[in-house]
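Internal tracking record. Fields below are filled automatically when a chain is submitted to the structure queue. Please do not edit lines marked as system-generated. If the sequence contains nonstandard residues, flag them in the REMARKS field before resubmitting.
Queue: standard
Priority: normal
Entity type: single polypeptide chain
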Amino acid sequence: MQNYVYLVGDPEAHTCVVVDPAWEIETIVRAAETDGMTITGAIVTHTHPDHVGGNLFGQVIPGVAELLERVPAKVYVHKAEREFLKGFGSDLKKVEAGDTLDVGRIRITFIHTPGHTPGSQCFYVDGRLISGDTLFIGSCGRTDLPGGDPEEMYRSLTQRLMALDDQTVLYPGHNYGGPFSTLGDERHRNPFLRFASLGEFLRAMGGGRVIIP
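SYSTEM-GENERATED OUTPUT FOLLOWS
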């Protein structure tokens, strides 16, 4: 699936959180330990199995459940998708647009970006945006899966994310076009950010399916 998993933390406080820990939990924990960091939380862009674990095409992905077996962490998910993560009890924390999480001196701001799923969210961290499956380099997330909404995707892209500074560094959820970009580059080169109207965007999405114009 070419997923990216990120560790976001403060080297002075020696604490970090993991973004979308679905794959290779042992590698994630070892990477944090190598950097002298303690994992205190997992922040979830959305609850598809390739981002949090579960059953994907018959393959069982350990994900968040295995992470919590290894480290005592809290899991932060948008309130619209709380019901899709079960069994974590008080370790599960609901968040919404504008909420923040401090990891040492590092502040993470939650940006609600529905469209790919109802509770999709991005994380803004000191001039950087971790965008999950909302915005990719050169494209955007699918809207033809259950819970997808192309109108919401258009608003998330054009109103919520494009309100950020052009110098914001973009870190997507999958390696579909490279490891990073900037919102300024995407504004000028990404075809899904260049439609003049919602109607044009919906026609290009083919009723929900992503079609590169």
